[in-house]
What does this fold into?
Amino acid sequence: MARILPDTSRTFAEYLLLPGLTGKDHTPRNTSLAVPVAAYNRGEQSRFQLNIPLVSASMQSVSGSDLAIALARQGGLAFVYCSQSIESQATMIAKAKSHKAGFVRSDSNVKPTATLRELLAVQRRTGHSTAAITDDGTNTGKFLGIITEKDFWEFEDNLDTLVSGYMTPVERVIHGRVGITLTEANRQLHKHKKECLPILEADGSLNSLVFKKDYVDHINNPRELLDADKRLAVGAGINTHDYMERVPALVEAGADVLAFDSSDGYSEFQKDAALWIRKRYGNNVVVGGGNVVSADGFRYLAEEAQVDFVKVGIGGGSICITREQKGIGRGQASALMDVSRERDAFFQKTGKYIPICSDGGLANDTQIIIALAMGADFVMMGRYFAMTSESPTPKVSIKGRIYKPYWGEGSNRARNWQRYSDEGTVDRLKFEEGVDGYVPVVGSVPEVLSVTLAKLRATMCNMGSLNLREFSEKAVLTLVSEQSIIEGGTSNIVQPDYNVTDDK
Ligand code: IMP
It folds into this structure.
């Protein structure tokens, strides 16, 4: 007969943390959110760490180059999705790696013969008010001048006149030459009180632009996640089918961390693929396995497949219908606690620490905090990042509200057969494991992270901890009854759903 586990399958929403003693030095400013990603031996440092414990899911509607850049700038990591051709995934990785903080390729460019109306259309499409004027209208053409929204009045000037009559011509533009350092470029911006410094090649063609706002942004983002060459760090999803071709292309493009994107990683297919990668690259790549929901699954990937980290979670994702469709999965809290326990036992026994990542089903900031308290070294999220302006999907207005599409990798729309089957020749979907829907747009990656991380730091202080290791070691959790969940909301007060005005 089947074995029935004695415990109930639990979710994060069923737990609360009990505060520990908060010392005088337990202030948010003193907390560190750095966490390990690569496995390490007792007494050593992990060879790859995050500066914040959040990564984005390897999903089409989540992790493209823009999100990879935005998240790495905040200290996290995006896993660029693998349900696309090897070439286009490698191109996305290379794009994020080539994002030189400070030197950006101009995305709004027109010829001098363009009309103001055409210029406005370009500015609206890109959302950027500074445009470069080049002889061929590209971002590498001969630089002829610059124009910003301050140079003309949309409702007063004749929009059918040419930009050449309004631009600041190259002779009067303060600019730099390729080879200039970022520090010197920023010094020029400061000295001449400018917002933008075009950087030109020796032959006068446009190379890049340096903006004052990026300097300010950099000063405000000291947590950027960088590789040894000071490029932004980027992760990549991989599968067990084409890894012999895909992995070399991704490593060549600069991927820092690889992670198997599989709904069930407790498999010999994953072991073979992980060992192939390890044999070829040794410890020069960081590779994660998963997903698993049990101690057995963790031990298999840790011992047999020699992965660097293990992702935990089946069936909890916001777009996921695996549990209904196939009857497999486990409450995310139960899965995570089981695997955390095994990770700690494995560390005691072998001296090797294998970080774990809680993947999917985090419905709000509180659940991120509970997952980290329960022992996740870091968390992976899809929906959370799909809702940001940097996710790769277009905004859509539905009944006066702004949304973005968000779909599961197991949906018919994603056509990601590799994620759901280890057979080599699956070419069509017999049943879906994910749905296709919309999520509200909530703001930019820095905006949403600033709130989440402020809550996390505050809770760490409540627990009397200054880093996330200490946080989970000190964490005391309690199961809550339905009544205490009701008690946790507001109670016995009136909250009108109209605006209260002061009549005085
Ligand atoms: P979310 O953060 O709750 O939206 O969950 C994202 C996670 O769900 C991903 O990291 C994947 O592990 C998982 N996932 C992505 N697509 C699907 C799907 O179509 N079905 C089931 N799980 C999925």
Notes: The pocket of inosinic acid is lined by residues 57, 59, 263, 313, 317-320, 322, 359-362, 380-384, 408-411, 433-434 (CB under 6 Å). The longest strand covers residues 286-292. The mean pLDDT is 92.
